[in-house]
Amino acid sequence: MKNLFLRSLNNKQIVIGIIPLTLFVSVISFVLYQDTKKTVTLETNGETIEVVTHAKTVGQLLQEQNIDVAEHDKISPSLNTKIVNRLAISWEQAKEVTILVDGNHSKVWTTETNVKNILKEANIEVSERDSLIQGLDTEIGADNIIDIQKAFQVSLVDGINERQVWSTSTTVANFLKQQGIKLNEFDRVENNLTDVITPQSKITVVRVEKVIDVVEEPLDFTIEKKQDASLQEGKQIVVSAGQKGLITKTYEIVKENGQFIAKNLQSEKVVKEPQKQVVAVGTKTVVNNVASVPSMASLPRIASASTVSRDSIEPPNGREIYVTATAYTAYCKGCSGTSATGIDLRSNPELKVIAVDPSVIKLGSKVWVEGYGIAVAEDTGGAIKGNKIDIFVPSETQAINWGVKIVRIKILN
């Protein structure tokens, strides 16, 4: 029994001695294990943490941290780099960015966030004329899209000025705004403002000007004829001379690019009413005494004027117009006494001759003149222009008595 007790006691002492030893070895092993770890700094997508690790390489460390490194991710230093104490490791995860150039898609993987750097990495050049939705110095948006519209030249016609300008695929309305083109009230654009500009586009701005012009115009008078039994049939006398009135007309003048386009009547107003001309028309019938009519042989005869009739009766036919009639003599101031066609008026004072504007009445024409009779257009005068005639009379007194009249004439040939 004594031996058994001693053996049991010895076993217990052995066990008690082993436990501290095992614990000591474990503590020593743990301390040695911990002492072999390396402390490194890990930066992931802008966030920095401190990691204590037994990993041998950067790749193993990232696996420990459950970081899957994709093909386009940026690792510094490389995955095969050995871990040393206080090593700084950086991991930037790449993202897919869509680049649109004039609507054409391309995709790139990059770790860059700045637009300029992404385009540089993708070998895409952007000029100052190109349109970029994001600024070059901005960060990529949440949608990972960069939209570029390349500039091209188009023709801009502004009024009479045409030039080549740079633009992108924008609407006509936005293009005009970009170019600082201001449209006035009546200006118009030949293009549809919502159309998208292409390299073949030609933008045309028409400058429209509208001005108001007020003009005065004469208003012709009417002629009223009254029968007069006291006057010989066919004879007419102006009882009261007509007077022209005055009317103002307001026009809208339209010009496009400085060129006259239209003249539109807006309104008219009679400023002065015309006064009608009253003419007495004879109805008295006269029986001619044939015996008292002088023979043609007794009348002076010269060239074309010899055929002039002295009868004042109005012929039934002929082109009828109204003219202003004055009178002159062969001896008036500045007169030579010889007509434009060479007739010696001083030697033939009884001839019926009138001075005319040849553009209205041809020289040599027979003309019936109200209150004068049938004459021949054989003379001209510096003041005789348009619907104006000068009748030849023998004396100055007759010329004065005639005065200035508006008379009716008939051109017979």
- Arithmetic mean pLDDT: 83
**How many β strands by DSSP?**
24
Question: Structural class, judged by helices and strands?
Answer: alpha+beta
Question: Strand sequence of the main sheet, in spatial order?
Answer: 19-23-20-22-21-24
| Main β-sheet description | 6 strands, mixed, barrel
**Relative strand content:** 35-45%
Helix-residue proportion: 10-25%
Low-confidence stretches: 27-34, 287-311
According to CATH, the homologous superfamily of the largest domain is RlpA-like domain
Report on this model:
By secondary structure, the chain is α+β, with helices and mostly antiparallel strands. The chain folds into 5 domains: 13-93, Beta-grasp domain (Ubiquitin-like (UB roll)), CATH 3.10.20.30; 95-149; 152-206; 210-280, Resuscitation-promoting factor rpfb (Resuscitation-promoting factor rpfb fold), CATH 2.20.230; 301-411, Barwin-like endoglucanases. The chain contains 5 helices and 24 strands. The protein has helices spanning 2-35, 58-64, 115-121, 172-178, 396-402, and strands spanning 38-44, 47-53, 74-76, 88-92, 95-101, 104-110, 131-132, 145-149, 152-158, 161-167, 188-189, 202-206, 208-219, 223-232, 236-240, 245-256, 259-272, 277-284, 319-328, 353-355, 366-369, 373-379, 388-392, 405-411. Mean pLDDT is 83; it is low at 27-34 and 287-311.
Short description:
The protein folds into five domains: 13-93, Ubiquitin-like (UB roll), CATH 3.10.20.30; 95-149; 152-206; 210-280, Resuscitation-promoting factor rpfb fold; 301-411, Barwin-like endoglucanases.
